[in-house]
Fold this sequence. Notes:
The protein is about 40% helix and about 20% strand. By secondary structure, the chain is an alpha+beta fold. Strands 1-4-5-9-8-7-6 form a seven-stranded mixed sheet.
Amino acid sequence: MLAxxxxxxxxxxxxxxSVEDEESLERWRVKHLGRxxxxxxxxxxxxxxxxxxxPTVGRRANEIKKVLExxxxxxxxxxxxxxxxxxxxxxxxxVTLPGRTALHGRLHPTTQTMRTIYAIxxxxxxxxxxxxxxxxxxxxxxxxxxxxxxxxxxxxxxxxVESEGDRGDNPxxxxxxxxxxxxxAMREFAAANPENxxxxxxxxxxxxxxxxxxxARAEMQFNQVEGLAxxxxxxxxxxxxxxxxxxxxxxxxxxxSRFRASHFPFTEPSAxxxxxxxxxxxxxxxVCKRSGWLEILGCGMVHPVVLQNGGYDPQRYTGFxxxxxxxxxxxxxxxxxxxxxxxxxxxxxxxxx
Length: 353
């Protein structure tokens, strides 16, 4: 049996010398190390040998198996290296060609604008306050001076999570604006000292949802940045000064702004803020619809009812609030004519920022 093993080893090593590629090497492995090979058959025959022979024969068979496996690995690595070298020699490589620019990830244009807005208001002393996206009708409307069946609710078509019959007049819904965060924030601040609530100076960014027809100017989901300042002796002049400075920092120091009277149930008085069209310089063009002005946000003094609902005595405290759309500001800054680009995931659009 030992002589037979020597013959098996010699034949295997001899035939390995004629192997020239990986395919023939695999055939060699199956023939000499496979389950049906003569070497593996030797292990099956150990039970038929005398007890004195089994250890010697088994040890010798294992030695041969290790020798053949080592030879197989060495030849496999040699053939692989040779194949790579042949490939490099066969292919032409022009080392003078310029390298390929590595692609880097980047921030979404809305995210870039929102971070700029955060930085501007941080310089003014505002803190970021986050509130939830699923709200109750009470916080989204009622506490903001939108009583049930109020006609102003028609300004905001709403996605309801629950039907009105499930919770009466207080169903769950996807917030239509970030203004519910005003009530959450004021109540949280007032809870620390109900007798003398501390001043509030925050911005509230987040996603909002409205059941609207998607067009080039309107989306069913969009970002908003709400602002709220509450304290003693806050006036409309503070509101105008804050927002005028914000506009200069965001759109350039030369930009002019104006305020127009408007109406929002949660502010009184209310206004909308425009900036002078930076495309035509105020002379009128297609971007500003020949008006010379571009609307960027709505604002006003916090309504006394809203202050009361937030835990602040309207006889002692006043405040202002504003709300803006980062997508709208991004469209103005970069002259983008379709809001649908922001959620279309088109790399041709996103890679420009």
